[in-house]
Write a structure and sequence with these properties.
Layout (H helix, E strand, L loop, with lengths): L5 H8 L21 E3 L2 E7 L5 H16 L6 E7 L11 H9 L5 E8 L7 H14 L4 E5 L7 H5 L18 E3 L2 E5 L10 E2 L2 H13 L6 E7 L6 H9 L4 E6 L3 H16 L4 E7 L3 E2 L6 E2 L6 H8 L4 E5 L3 H8 L4 H4 L4 H19 L13
Bound molecules: adenosine-5'-diphosphate.
The site of adenosine-5'-diphosphate has 19 residues, from α4 and α10.
């Protein structure tokens, strides 16, 4: 039996035709670097995310073929979204330039960002969007968190978007609570493993921004991918943002991350609209007392230090979590609650700043300690 090697695997893969009928999957450049360890073989097939669904079958077929090669104990084939989508025309620079000119019909785009995951960025983004809506604005939400799209779940939206033209080149946004929504989560199955490389994130988002038939919109809330890596930086730079909102928990660690988030926007000259402290305090439903679990107030102090607006604090509350997780966000489903009022207040504050155009002032000086 020949020793297991990349060449041996490639020789087998060359017998599998490429999906467009031209050559095989190796000559078509679909196969990534092949990793072999203790008889386990792993590699990726690079696909256009728009075709990810139909490529799942191919991935399963390829995985089966490889697992039957002598000496292979286990094969794992994942889909990645590294290739540029076919429909996006022209070089990247052109795409970026066209995006910078704005999205037709959309007045303001704001990014909701955090320096790290798990601080409640998506929960804040959806409730803020619903706050804008409750304040009488026309609102859209773009789920740019391609690594973990959560808007389908938070909005409780199931199903796939419909095409909005005959050739199927554009799609309609989904709609719930009177808010238009687009998410990569509507297009790719949750169970489909997708590995996103930096440039691909921007291409996918360009498609979501450009190829969705957004209606007239006062404010589009963009739920950013968490963190401050290259993909996030490019997104902040190439999306025509009016401003960014940073969500942080009061813990020191999260604040250091939040500062990195701030710095990212400052670097690319996007005005920071302010900081929201999430999970700020907890009111015990047994004793009615306010508990400051994470040492409340850190974000307010931090905002002061950086001369940034402090937009408000949102308590840690079971109702907020349960309603989010059930696809019934609190601002829509419990509009009379004090928490809904907090989100509406923050939304009003942000809108006033957007409309007053106070956003061009010099960015704050950010010091990373
Ligand atoms: P991120 O987008 O930063 O990863 P999520 O919005 O997904 O964070 O929130 C992470 C978890 O915390 C979710 O289960 C969410 O319901 C919960 N959560 C977010 N904000 C609050 C809050 N203010 N009170 C209670 N739970 C919250």
């Amino acid at each position: 039996m020949p020793a297991l090697s990349q060449d041996l695997i490639l020789a087998e893969l060359k017998h599998i035709a490429a999906p467009d009928g031209r050559g095989n999957i190796v000559s078509a450049g679909l196969v990534s670097e092949i990793a072999i360890q203790d008889g386990e073989v792993m590699f990726a097939l690079n696909v256009n995310p728009a075709h990810a669904k139909s490529m799942e079958q191919l991935a399963a077929f390829v995985q089966d073929r490889v697992s039957k090669i002598d000496g292979v104990k286990k094969a794992r084939v994942v889909l990645t979204a590294e290739r540029a989508p076919e429909r996006t025309p022209g070089p990247k620079q052109q795409q970026a330039a066209s995006l910078r000119n704005g999205i037709p019909g959309v007045k303001h785009l704001i990014a909701v960002a955090s320096g790290k995951g798990g601080v409640g960025k998506s929960t804040t983004a959806i409730n803020l969007a619903l706050g804008f809506k409750a304040n009488g604005l026309r609102v859209a939400v773009l789920d740019a968190d391609v690594y973990g799209p959560s808007m389908p779940k938070l909005f409780g939206i199931h199903g796939k978007p419909e095409a909005s033209d005959e050739e199927g080149k554009r799609m309609k946004p989904m709609n719930r609570f009177g808010v238009e929504v687009a998410s990569i989560g509507f297009l790719v199955d949750e169970a489909t493993p997708m590995i996103w490389r930096g440039p691909m994130v921007m291409s996918a988002l360009t498609q979501l921004l450009r190829e969705v038939s957004w209606g007239e919109t006062d404010v589009m809330v963009i739920d950013m991918p968490p963190g401050t890596g290259d993909a996030q930086l490019t997104l902040a730079q190439q999306t025509p943002l009016s401003g960014a909102v940073i969500v942080s928990t009061p813990q020191d660690l999260a604040l250091i991350d939040a500062r990195k988030g701030l710095n990212m926007f400052v670097k690319v000259n996007v005005p920071v609209l302010g900081i929201i402290e999430n999970m700020s305090y907890f009111i015990c439903d047994q004793c009615g007392k306010r508990h400051e679990i994470f040492g409340h107030g850190g974000a307010r102090k931090e905002a002061e230090k950086l001369s940034l607006p402090f937009l408000g604090e949102i308590p840690l509350d079971l109702e907020i979590r349960e309603r989010s997780d059930a696809g019934e966000p609190i601002v829509a489903s419990l509009p009379d609650s004090p928490h809904a009022a907090v989100y509406r207040g923050i939304a009003a504050n942000i809108w006033a700043r957007l409309e007053a155009g106070q956003l061009t002032k010099a960015p704050p000086r950010i010091v990373i300690e």
